[in-house]
Specification:
The complex is a heterodimer of chains A (170) and B (97). Chain A has seven helices and no strands. Chain A is mainly alpha-helical and 170 residues long. Chain A has two domains: 118 residues, Four Helix Bundle (Hemerythrin (Met), subunit A); 48 residues. In chain A, helix 1 packs antiparallel against helix 2 and helix 2 packs antiparallel against helix 3. By secondary structure, chain B is mostly helical. Chain B has a single domain, classed as Helix Hairpins (Orthogonal Bundle). Chain B is 80% helix and 0% strand. The radius of gyration of chain B is 16 Å and the shape is elongated. The mean pLDDT of chain B is 87. The chains are: A mainly alpha (170), B mainly alpha (97). The interface between A and B is large, with 85 and 68 residues. Chain A: Its EC number is 7.1.1.-. Chain A: GO terms for molecular function: NADH dehydrogenase (ubiquinone) activity; quinone binding.
Amino acid sequence: MDFTQLIFYVAAGLAVVSSLLMITRKNPVFSAMFLIVALFSIATIFVLLGAHFLAALQVIVYAGAIMVLFLFVIMLLNLGHDFEPDIRGRLGWAFMGGLGLVLFAEILTAVQGAPGDAGGDVLTPWFEAKGVVAGVAEPLFRDYAVAVEITGVLLLVAMVGAVVIARREA
Amino acid sequence: MVTEALILSGLLFTIGAAGVLIRRNAIVMFMCIELMLNAVNLSFIAISRQVGVSAQLFVIFVMTVAAAEAAVGLAIIISIFRHYSSVDVRNFRLLRW
């Protein structure tokens, strides 16, 4: 097992363990912290899979912006010391665990049809020719320019909608 | 490593889905949705080694939609909290039987 694979398995284990801890902690602040750990581990795996720019984007957008928003709302609503149990009982755990196992088995079956490592690596030569950022930016702004524009409109709509929904009624 | 990443992505998606079903705290359910979106991003990036860089562009769009969804969803949670003084979904019974 080479060094890259070792890092992959460490990051994968960290992601799974911290996301399991995330769904079982009573305190929502702890859940947010474990989600940050999981997101950082996923960013590590992005680097190992050759998506350097998206790993940086993952850290900036998720850990930097979205999680700050979550923590801000938790603090604003003063939920940090709210230990009223909100996790379903034993029957719920058994039911949801069974459903989860079925879902995971379905996904595993779907993965059987995936090409795997055998299909060859087209990404590394592309990034070596274009550079890590330009290799993403060039097709983004050439082939997907309309989608980028629509995404900008979507962000504007989301911003206005958030302001209107959260506004205190006069 | 691609197959392992796909399996990991399935595992994380499953944990996120189970979290949405097990928890009753609206904010934690939201975090689980973010985890599910991230698992899907991971599978896109794993596949991008074979299909080229366009799979990574989809990840950028998914991240943007996730950010917009988080902003609007948290605004809805704040608005609900003003009504019920709680974020527990058991209290939101207006549209339930």
